[in-house]
Amino acid sequence: MKFAATVGDRSYCRKWHSYRIFIVNRLTRVRFMSILPNFLRSLLLTIILSFVVPTFLIGGGLASVSLLKFIPGLQGIGQAIASAMQQFLATFGSGSAWRGLCIIGMTCSLVGALFDTYAFYRYQNLRGD
């Protein structure tokens, strides 16, 4: 019995090497195709949540401060904080507080998408794929 390839077996070794490369390429494609839907689902969920959370936090803060204006002892403080928040949002929205709120939400969404893409890339590299 012989276990090592000899000089005459080179053609067999070359064939096996080319088949091995073909199989590895096929497996890589299959693995990529199974990872892509998971990545897109994760990216879409990250984009949506990264938009909704800051929008609700800032919008909820503005709404609660606006409701603070109706409490008799806190009318002045509520009015001052609400106008300052509206001016801050108008700075980002070219004069419109709603547009500023959307711009901040879209910016946070973009940052979340970039972070999710980076985390996916690092996960793939650390796994060795």
SSE diagram, text form:
Elements: H1 10-68, H2 75-92, H3 97-127
Shape: elongated
Q: Main beta sheet: strand number and arrangement?
A: none
Helical amount? over 70%
Output the radius of gyration.
Answer: 29 Å
One letter per element, helices H and strands E, the order comes to HHH
Describe the structure.
With 129 residues, the protein is mostly helical. It has one domain. Helix content is 84%, strand content 0%. It is built from three helices and no strands. Helix 2 crosses helix 3 (97-127).
Could you give a quick summary of the protein structure above?
This protein has 129 residues and is mostly helical.
Q: Which properties best describe this structure?
A:
129 residues; mainly alpha; 3 helices; 84% helix
